[in-house]
Amino acid sequence: MIDLSVDTTSQSFFAGQAAGTILVAAIALTFLWRLTKPWRNVLDKSGVAPAERKRLQGRRNQVVVLATVVITVFAAMQVAGRFGREADDTDSSGGGTRQGPAEPVTVRPE
After folding, report:
1. Measured between alpha carbons, how far is 3 from 20 in angstroms, rounded to an integer?
2. pTM recorded for the entire structure
């Protein structure tokens, strides 16, 4: 990909980056919940008393919910961090980090 063909200051670029980050987080959460389902559901055949089994299931569900919260917060921080950098890069107060072209550019149709 040619870097000059991508406008990293556009809203659509940011929306694509945010959507990609959220999609990766959603896939990670889906795998987390699918892969831990047998572990979270203690079987009746395990020889554990019903009260202990219920407590163990609750504890395991808390661990998976905590992991879900951590993944979600991390994804939200990534999206917010990209948004913060985007606002810094497009500072219009004259002190921004990006400079426009030195000469005006004219595009002529051929």
Report:
1. 19
2. 0.66
